[in-house]
């Protein structure tokens, strides 16, 4: 990449835009943290570098859908669901979890968002900076094993690479998950219909605000911690209780981004009651001090789901019967107005709930 941080007017060099030995020109746009933050810039980047290259691959749900995974038929009765994710976080160990628990939970949860609640296998690739204590890596892999046991999953293959000291930040993990579902049995994130109810399975903002406060050294009390956890058992209970029409987990970009994506993909509007959205007291207080809206930051143990209106009460009861869903709430409704957008009723008025733009909290998932 071109480094322009210390270039002043007197240092400007005229260029004809020819590519240099690294294959880029001085006119090329560079990647910033904002491209990985879950907002509009990330969507544009993925569209440019991935979807445009591989969108033609045949699948029930392919890359162009930008869902939590792909769905590929394997015979007349079954389809395979595949998802992959890379995980970077600072600090590696935080209140409520660590990068190992995050990697397993994130992959299991992405499968679950597709309706695949029984993981068949996970892969794990560790990329480690030279100089990292081996005990650090052992703690991470032990945490991965414990999260796998909780989710009923296992790592069946993997890879390890070591980078030079200073070439990366300690440790990154890539995980892939595979599951089998009945043909046509997957749940897309684009499946909302007018009249559906929106349910959030737990308090929002916990992961992102907890990590930021810990990283910056703020002490908001012991109740503030990440919510990172596998939720495939929670999703299974919901699907057994009623018709779940769409699902997504509010990771990067948080609840605001997920709701807008679901509304846009289904070409519907969403009305949300702000007072109905579960936010813990510590997260609300910390968010006010930090100037961060809990709706805009990542959760790592929460599901946002659309549910057929006649089944909403039964699904809500099933979620609340599970300790992971005890704070679940119906937060809104799908409407045929303001299609592709989310309107938030604050109790004092109504406003659009827009996804965050730019870099808010780097390296949190």
Automatic annotation (TrEMBL):
In residue numbers, the region (Disordered) covers 1-25
Compositional bias per record (Acidic residues), positions renumbered to this chain:
7-25
The molecule here is called Hydrogenase expression/formation protein HypE
Classification from the root reads:
Archaea, Methanobacteriati, Methanobacteriota, Stenosarchaea group, Halobacteria
Per UniProt, residues of the PurM-like C-terminal domain are 194-344
Organism per entry: Halorhabdus utahensis (strain DSM 12940 / JCM 11049 / AX-2)
One GO biological process term: protein maturation
The similarity comment for this entry is: Belongs to the HypE family.
Q: Short name of one Pfam family for this protein?
A: AIRS_C
Entry-linked InterPro entries: HypE, PurM-like_C_dom, PurM-like_C_sf, PurM-like_N, PurM-like_N_sf
Q: Where is the PurM-like N-terminal domain?
A: 67-181
